[in-house]
Recover the amino acids of this structure.
């Protein structure tokens, strides 16, 4: 679920290809990498983008002909996303950038600034690999592709982010060809955009006084609640199915597949009691759920029918106990994700970014940025 918390950090560019070390945070809290910009093809990290193709990475640091500006959004949490694929043949994607103020740079060094101080302005840019990189819109964040020529995004009502002030937004869409914008949700709120299945948007809304995040379907300017504190699974734009994992407050968490047109639940499956969900993804009829329990990370795969979820396999991922898997994506039988691993578990002062890629067919995982690894033997049912 998307969050809107200020991460007080600034990161340097990602390491060059093949290097193990990632960005080193200058502030007290490391900025998280963003979600995959082009599904199985790219991941946006602070400072640049890494495109994945044929088991290699390229791109990376600003100033190397990659991105015009550093890809980052300090006002959004892990799941709000730094980029989104458009699905266009030229591989174009929209990414988040940030115009920081001197006050922001003061804050990340540990010196406090008064409440309400202008810390900077988020913005969106349109990047074509090997081509143009242009400013798309100021005071905007959390882009999500709806079609190859349209994105949805959050419009920051104040224009800039101000210290200790709510990040109040509206939901808008923008035609990438004409620049025409439409208001999808005019009522201000603490929103996050989760997914764009067929016929609508999945929007999260934070209610800090109640301690909940409510996920809803947005259609025709109205929100239809799906539930509270859900983990919404990644789906391709226009997906005929929607999926999420419910919280474990009443026992074991449940994976759910639903019709995005109505929100009606089509199938459910219980997960292991006591586990927590690190992420999930639905592509076609394949659902993969990544969970953690007892300092272990596990991938469980399902096949979704019109009425049931059938488990097809489950295997652990070889990661340090301190690492979680984030923002998984499916490409055929491959599961891609990113992870943050402290370079020194005793201090955690330096972090390394990993891109574990797991085969659901062979139950093996390879970390594209760090070192090859093999999962334990699969258990199938």
């Amino acid at each position: 679920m998307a969050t809107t918390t200020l991460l007080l950090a600034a990161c340097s560019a990602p390491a060059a290809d093949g290097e193990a070390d990632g960005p080193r945070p200058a502030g007290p809290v490391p900025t998280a990498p963003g979600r995959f910009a082009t599904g199985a093809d790219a991941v946006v990290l602070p400072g640049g983008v890494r495109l994945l193709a044929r088991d290699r990475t390229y791109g990376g640091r600003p100033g190397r002909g990659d991105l015009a500006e550093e890809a980052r959004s300090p006002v959004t949490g892990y799941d709000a996303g730094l980029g989104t694929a458009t699905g266009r043949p030229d591989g174009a994607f929209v990414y988040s950038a940030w115009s920081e103020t001197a006050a922001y740079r003061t804050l990340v060094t540990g010196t406090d600034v008064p409440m309400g101080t202008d810390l900077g302005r988020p913005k969106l840019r349109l990047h074509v690999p090997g081509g143009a990189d242009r400013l798309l819109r100021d005071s905007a964040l959390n882009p999500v592709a709806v079609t190859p020529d349209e994105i949805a995004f959050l419009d920051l009502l104040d224009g800039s982010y101000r210290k200790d002030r709510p990040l109040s937004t509206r939901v808008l869409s923008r035609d990438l060809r004409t620049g025409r914008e439409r208001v999808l949700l005019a009522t201000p709120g603490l929103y996050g955009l989760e997914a764009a299945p067929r016929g609508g948007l999945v929007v999260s809304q934070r209610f800090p006084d109640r301690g909940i995040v409510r996920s809803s379907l947005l259609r025709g300017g109205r929100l239809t609640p799906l539930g509270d504190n859900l983990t919404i699974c990644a789906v391709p734009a226009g997906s005929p199915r929607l999926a999420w994992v419910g919280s474990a407050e009443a026992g074991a968490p449940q994976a759910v597949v639903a019709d995005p047109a109505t929100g009606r639940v089509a199938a459910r499956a219980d997960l292991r009691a006591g586990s927590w969900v690190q992420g999930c993804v639905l592509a076609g009829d394949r659902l993969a759920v990544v969970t953690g329990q007892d300092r272990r990370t596990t991938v469980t795969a399902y096949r979704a029918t019109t009425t049931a979820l059938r488990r097809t396999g489950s295997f652990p991922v070889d990661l340090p106990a301190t690492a979680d898997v984030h923002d998984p994506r499916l490409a055929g039988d491959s599961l891609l994700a990113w992870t943050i691993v402290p370079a020194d578990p005793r201090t955690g002062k330096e972090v390394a970014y990993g891109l574990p890629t797991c085969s659901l067919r062979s139950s093996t995982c390879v970390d594209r940025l760090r070192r090859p690894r093999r999962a334990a033997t699969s258990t199938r049912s």
Summary: The chain has two domains: 1-229, 234-381.
